[in-house]
């Protein structure tokens, strides 16, 4: 076993979690309670998944329900990270737009069998990538619109449609959401050996097979994240996803600014 699950394992995890919370507090990065809560939730959720995953992979209805649960949690998490108002549910669009076509193509081509033992981890990786891209792209786009609202107004004064004026300001900022995935893909094997590669090796696969699986994951993630960022940017530009209170309305003011 790579990591023995015993008292030492639990103690080391507790120390690492305490270090993360302490550093975040001392550097005024995030509330330490948020760090601790995330760690405790991760432990509880992984324990629960470990108990039910054996049932899920043997039943198609349970498999579909589990995948929908993963998607729903991702939508809620991403949407609430982007905005606190009622438009958060629009995060469902970029996550689905990125994940569904890729998973569908993998199933149709037979590269991933329609079995839980393969479909759950692959879909989970892709949903996680879409979640990250949606959060980063949406937050960066809305932050940029809030900071540079004068440039949006200038574009409107020049006759640009509202969508185009927002796109001109938010596009470059939203594109930064693709950088983590691009950098990971560019440096794979040179800086890090990602989890899929290491897991395949530990499971007895050959280095060639492990490398092929990891390449597949990285390229799939780039496709998913690219679609997710493009979709969330379009939603922000059209005013569907915003930070205003109340119902969306068309105006010559900025949709993405706080407190409008």
Summarize this entry quickly:
By secondary structure, the chain is mainly alpha-helical. It has 10 helices and no strands.
Helix/strand/pairing category: mainly alpha
Rg: 21 Å
* Major beta-sheet overview: none
Q: In percent, how helical is the residue content? A: over 70%
The ordered H/E elements are HHHHHHHHHH
Report the portion of residues in β strands.
under 5%
Low-confidence stretches: 247-260
Number of strands: 0
| CA(first)-CA(last) distance | 55 Å
Helix segment tally = 10
Shape: globular
In round numbers, the mean pLDDT is 85
Protein name: ABC transporter permease
Main location: membrane
Organism: Streptomyces gobitricini
Transmembrane segments: 42-75, 87-111, 117-138, 188-206, 212-237
Description:
The chain has 260 residues and is mainly α. It has ten helices and no strands. The N and C termini lie far apart (55 Å). Its main location: membrane. The chain crosses the membrane at residues 42-75, 87-111, 117-138, 188-206, 212-237. It holds the Pfam family UPF0014.
Keywords:
disordered C terminus, 10 helices, mainly alpha, globular
């Amino acid at each position: 076993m790579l990591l023995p699950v015993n008292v030492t394992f639990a103690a080391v995890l507790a120390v690492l979690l305490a270090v993360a919370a302490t550093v975040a507090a001392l550097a005024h990065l995030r509330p330490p309670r948020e760090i601790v809560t995330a760690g405790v939730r991760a432990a509880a959720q992984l324990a629960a998944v470990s108990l039910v995953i054996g049932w899920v992979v043997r039943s198609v209805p349970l498999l579909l329900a589990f995948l929908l649960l993963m998607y729903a949690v991702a939508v809620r998490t991403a949407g609430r990270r982007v905005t606190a108002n009622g438009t958060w549910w629009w995060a469902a669009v970029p996550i689905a737009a990125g994940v569904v076509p890729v998973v569908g193509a993998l199933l149709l081509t037979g590269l991933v069998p329609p079995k839980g033992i393969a479909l759950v981890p692959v879909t989970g990786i892709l949903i996680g990538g879409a979640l990250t891209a949606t959060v980063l792209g949406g937050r960066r786009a809305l932050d940029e619109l809030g900071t540079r609202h004068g440039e949006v107004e200038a574009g409107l004064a020049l006759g640009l449609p509202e969508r185009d004026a927002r796109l001109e300001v938010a596009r470059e900022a939203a594109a930064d959401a693709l950088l983590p995935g691009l950098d990971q893909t560019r440096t794979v094997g040179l800086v890090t050996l990602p989890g899929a590669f290491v897991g395949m090796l530990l499971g007895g696969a050959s280095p060639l097979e492990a490398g092929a699986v990891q390449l597949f994951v990285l390229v799939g993630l780039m496709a998913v994240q690219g679609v997710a960022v493009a979709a969330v940017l379009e939603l922000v530009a059209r005013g569907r996803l915003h930070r205003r209170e109340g119902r969306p309305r068309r105006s010559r003011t900025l949709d993405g600014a706080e407190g409008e």
